[in-house]
Design a protein that fits this description.
Layout (H helix, E strand, L loop, with lengths): L13 E3 L3 H14 L3 H9 L7 H5 L3 H4 L9 H13 L4 E5 L3 H16 L5 E3 L12 H10 L2 E5 L6 H5 L5 E5 L13 E3 L15 H18 L12 H10 L6 H15 L4 H9 L8 H18 L4 H7 L3 H36 L6 E6 L6 H12 L3 E7 L2 E7 L6 H10 L5 E4 L3 E7 L3 H14 L9 E3 L2 E2 L7 H8 L13 E14 L3 E7 L5 E6 L7 H6 L5 E13 L2 E13 L1
Parallel strand pairs: 1-12, 2-3, 2-4, 4-5, 5-6, 7-8, 13-14, 16-18
Antiparallel strand pairs: 8-9, 9-11, 10-11, 14-15, 14-17, 15-16, 17-18
Helix pairs in contact: 1-2, 5-9, 6-9, 6-10, 6-14, 9-10, 10-11, 10-13, 12-15, 13-14, 13-15, 14-15, 15-16, 17-18
Length: 580
């Protein structure tokens, strides 16, 4: 049954509340721990039993960090790396051009710098070279280096790694592996086919962090000291984990939580400069990482110079950091303009095919390859379906896809490549990249839709709004928000708490900007709550609330602290409403 009887809200969504089992579990947690009921509801949704509530709310990395040696090739990879450091060998880092690749490269460059060593950074151009190692680049690097470390790429790069004659190659990756591994000295990847997959949710920076933990262990065993402070590097791991849309559960949750604490110190010049150009005026959280910092780091690889992000994250110069941050901010503005044009065209095309299919996809002539992934994310968010967006150029199309929880897009794309419907393709559960011949585009997308449908894509209603429970305005306090934050950080796989507030009246409402709405809501007791509804006038939500005529509404949203002119007030980020 629809929650509060809302089958079709003002944004055309059906409200779905917690199950009976979840409600019972929440009651048990509240009774046995004394925690506030809203927090108990969030814990119950996450499957946390009462006796584990306190440990879950205070995760310790040392309790959750896995033994790096659980990953195949980890020991030999770290041993070869440490040998190169001790012998002062020439080391190159070959990185992907996104946030995860840039952060992974920065981790290694920072670590080596603190050890008195330098490394050559190489990031391929998205358009000219494409994703991952290529034979000419690897051949050139091998001629000038003894060791090449590929981060966030390399697992499927058989020919490119074979071309690196004269140098040894280590791969530190997380993308889905094939039946055979490339001819590298070591391939450390939790998503190799011969791994159990228990650590498959790590992003590449998480894998690199475990690699450095193992390197430190081998240094201790050889009585070479402790090495650099790895905990101080978790700001990079946190940024990559959130930006790469890795699930914020298990060890990822602990990595991001600790990384946010490190980021608060503003000790890394690149991240501090980026926070300043993004006008961050509060302590960093996952929203900042995913929507303010991440897109700016990505902008270089999308439409600018591919290595800008990695250089920003690894620099120790405040002047260089400021210049790079300004350049990335400018590129991000340009990226937004390009994205808006592609998004409008892609949405129109996808709508013509129907938005209730297992796969939502669009392809267009000359669409910039640097923004197709972002547009795919927008289509996925709008439809609750896996989405693929492809830019066509000549006889080929290059595209990116984004998936929803429970649907492994990377495996399906890789299967299409194995079946010959794609020229190449790969990725991980939540994201994938592909290259397809123009004359096979329709056949490839039809087959991909079939594979995704088998995993359940298309079954969930695109209009479902999931809620954690009920709340009244009087319960919305600073203390409750602080309690709820203890269950975070929130993001992919761990959505931030969303509550319904029933039968409220609108006391005040005014439009802000082109499409936002500020309002004050109240219940029968007189308790009031400020709210903000972004882009409310893009749907029926804004007009209905602004011209309420005294009507009562059920509202839904997330609690937050509004920082304004030195004051902090509780407000509801209102996402939906329905007439009561």
């Amino acid at each position: 049954m629809a929650y509060l009887g809302v089958e079709r809200s003002l944004t055309c969504r059906r409200w779905v509340g917690p199950s009976v089992e979840t409600e019972r579990a929440a009651e048990a947690i509240a009774q046995q721990t004394g925690l506030p009921r809203p927090l108990a509801q969030v814990l119950a949704r996450s499957g946390v039993p009462p006796h584990e509530a306190e440990s879950y709310l205070s995760p310790r990395l040392r309790d959750l960090l896995p033994d790096p040696r659980r990953l195949k090739d980890m020991e030999k990879a770290a041993a070869r790396f440490l040998s190169a450091v001790r012998r002062n060998e020439r080391i190159a880092v070959f990185a992907d051009y996104d946030v995860d690749g840039g952060a992974s490269a920065a981790l290694l460059i920072d670590w080596l710098r603190q050890m008195g060593r330098a490394a050559t950074l190489y990031v391929p151009d998205r358009i000219d070279e494409g994703y991952g190692p290529n034979a000419p680049a690897m051949r050139d690097l091998a001629a000038r280096h003894d060791l090449i470390v590929c981060v966030d790429c390399g697992t499927l790069s058989h020919d490119a790694i074979a071309a690196a004659r004269g140098a040894e190659v280590i791969v530190l990756d997380h993308h889905l592996g094939g039946e055979t591994l490339p001819p590298a000295h070591a391939v450390v990847n939790p998503n190799r086919q011969d791994e159990d997959g228990d650590l498959g949710q790590l992003c590449a920076a998480g894998v690199v962090f475990l690699f450095l933990v193992e390197t430190r262990r081998q240094m201790r065993a050889a009585e070479l000291g402790e090495g650099p402070d790895l905990m101080a590097m978790l700001d990079l791991v946190a940024l990559a984990t959130v930006a790469d849309v890795a699930p914020l559960t298990g060890v990822n949750r602990a990595l991001v939580r600790q990384g946010l604490e490190v980021m608060r110190r503003r000790a890394r010049p690149g991240l501090a400069a980026l926070a300043d150009v993004a006008r961050m005026d509060t302590a960093p959280n996952t929203y900042h990482l995913g929507f303010l910092l991440g897109p700016r780091v990505n902008a270089g690889g999308r439409i600018g110079k591919a290595d800008l992000g990695a250089r920003l994250l690894s620099t120790t110069s405040t002047a260089e950091a400021a210049a790079l941050a300004q350049r990335l901010n400018q590129l991000n503005e340009e990226r937004r303009a390009i994205e808006d044009a592609v998004r409008a065209a892609a949405l129109e095309q996808a709508e013509s095919r129907g938005l209730d299919a297992p796969l939502v996809w669009a392809a267009g002539e000359g669409w910039h390859p640097g923004v197709v992934g972002i547009v795919a994310s927008r289509l996925k968010e709008a439809t609750n379906r896996p989405a693929v967006v492809i830019g066509l150029d000549g006889d080929e199309g290059k595209g990116s896809g984004r998936s929803i929880a429970g649907v492994d897009l990377g495996a399906s794309v890789q299967r299409l490549a194995a079946e010959g419907l794609l020229l190449k393709g790969g990725g991980h559960r939540m994201a994938a990249g592909l290259t397809v011949a123009r004359d096979r585009l329709e056949a490839a997308m039809t087959r991909l839709a079939e594979l995704l449908a088998r995993q359940g894509a298309g079954r969930a209603g695109p209009a479902d709004l999931r809620l954690d429970g009920l709340m009244m305005p009087r319960a919305a306090t600073h203390e409750l928000i602080a309690d709820l934050d203890r269950a975070g950080p929130f993001g992919q796989g761990a959505p931030s708490p969303r509550f319904a507030l029933p039968s409220l009246v609108v006391r005040h409402a005014r439009q802000v900007g082109d499409s936002h709405l500020k309002l004050t809501l109240a219940d029968d007791s007189g308790a009031a709550l400020d709210a903000i509804a972004f882009r409310a006038f893009d749907s029926d939500l804004g007009p209905a609330l602004a011209n309420h005529g005294g009507a009562r509404f059920h509202v839904a949203g997330r609690l937050e602290i509004n920082h304004f002119r030195g004051q902090q007030r509780v407000q509801l980020r209102l996402e939906d409403a329905a007439r009561a």
